[in-house]
Amino acid sequence: MSEDTPTAITQERRVVTEIPGPRSRELHARRQAVVPPGVHSVLPVYIERAHDSVLVDVDGNQIVDVCGGIGVTTIGHTDDAVVAAAAEQLGKVTHTLFTMTPYEPYVRVAEFLAKHVPGSTAEQPYKTLLMNSGAEAVENGVKIARKHTGRPGVAVLEHAYHGRTMLTSSMNFKGAPYAAGYGPRAGDIYKAPNSYPARDGLSGPDAAKRTIAYLEKVAGAEDLACLVVEPIQGEGGFIVPADGYLPALAEWCRANGIVFIADEVQAGMARTGTVFSIEQFGVVPDIVLSAKGIAGGLPLAGITGRAEIMDKSQPGGLGGTFGGNPVSCAAATAVFEQIEQTDLLAEAKRIGDTFGGALRDLQSKYADNIVDVRGIGAMQAVEFVKPGTLEHDTEIVAKVIDRAAQQGVLLLSAGIYSNVIRFLPSLKMSDELIADVVAVIDEAIGAELG
Ligand SMILES: *Cc1c(COP(=O)(O)O)cnc(C)c1O
């Protein structure tokens, strides 16, 4: 291995062994002896270094990362400013426990979130609790909504994903693998039909009527504490709801005293060209959940809500040992500073144009197989079907992902039937690299259909 610093990684593919290579296979054998198979790795290639869009594995292969650890490294791997901020904080203080003796970086992150969350004003301030993971953000959002309303019910949507803790795995649409065998599942959770324009053909208001009718019948509005929605569904396949769907749901929640919680864990933090994706739909949420991209690769999650709701919890009711770790908070500050001071949001739009455009060209070329290209900004996806039907084509997606991996491109599936390829590139990925990635996918589809 050279003595290159991570920043010296050239932003290009370089395949020098088969993938996985011999050193990765060796490591994988070691891992299998000590790590249970429930912790599955999509591509068992062991990564040694990374910068921006490129992963370097232990065999020296350079792999273009179009997943970003599932939307975590939104501003790129080992971003210079994030690394510098985290390193500086590491040398100062790494832990005190905010609920014991607090520190400034936590407060700064809360200030950034209050500033950027839609709806936050001097008259109606928003406050933030910091935790470690997306699932913890969802758990706490539900706790806070229950405390505020005094009601038990949790409404979610079909195709949703909210995490793998006991409560959140009960909220996911997909039972297997996330909840299967781990029961009993949590109760008082209601899974309502969503808006899925490529498949249901419903307008936003009509889809909202269907969702609301279901919840009123099955749950009863007066028993619901909250409705938790991903403005753009992530694991579900980057489903962008039809126009008017989310505003109608938010209005219904307001009219019925139900807390509207936007789970922005995957779609938030600048990925769609606005800080929060819900801004794209003109909706003011009561609570916004952040995690994944918030700290440039370090673990951190935020629950940001209207003060009136957040202030209901008693001292000691909220928190956790590592929640709002100072190093993670320093890294998040570096992310927010780039959002505010550079053209990161415009970059998300650029990626939406180039990546989305190239994918629509693929759709024209493989019109029988690609039923939909969708997404906003740097959150794009392609849905595959069996030719001439709406039947989910899971196999072609698995094969295309496998072929792309062999060529040094890391892709990820999505959707209840894994028939969607989703793209979560770094906001700094060049148009040139995007073109290279799409060419690899084009070749892989061509070879499969050959
Ligand atoms: C990933 C994800 C979660 C869970 O986050 P973890 O950090 O994995 O616990 C929750 N909601 C959404 C929308 C996600 O994409």
TrEMBL record:
GO MF assignments: (S)-3-amino-2-methylpropionate transaminase activity; 4-aminobutyrate:2-oxoglutarate transaminase activity; identical protein binding; pyridoxal phosphate binding
Catalytic activity: 4-aminobutanoate + 2-oxoglutarate = succinate semialdehyde + L-glutamate; (S)-3-amino-2-methylpropanoate + 2-oxoglutarate = 2-methyl-3-oxopropanoate + L-glutamate
SUPFAM superfamilies xrefs: PLP-dependent transferases
Source taxon at top rank: Bacteria
This protein's pathway: Amino-acid degradation; 4-aminobutanoate degradation
Pfam families per UniProt: Aminotran_3
Tagged with keyword Transferase: yes
InterPro entries (UniProt xref): Aminotrans_3, Aminotrans_3_PPA_site, Class-III_PLP-dep_AT, PyrdxlP-dep_Trfase, PyrdxlP-dep_Trfase_major, PyrdxlP-dep_Trfase_small
PROSITE patterns: AA_TRANSFER_CLASS_3
Cofactors that this protein relies on: pyridoxal 5'-phosphate
Enzyme Commission (EC) number: 2.6.1.19, 2.6.1.22
Top class in the EC scheme: transferase
Keywords: Aminotransferase, Pyridoxal phosphate, Transferase
Sequence similarity: Belongs to the class-III pyridoxal-phosphate-dependent aminotransferase family.
Protein name per UniProt: (S)-3-amino-2-methylpropionate transaminase
Organism: Leucobacter chromiisoli
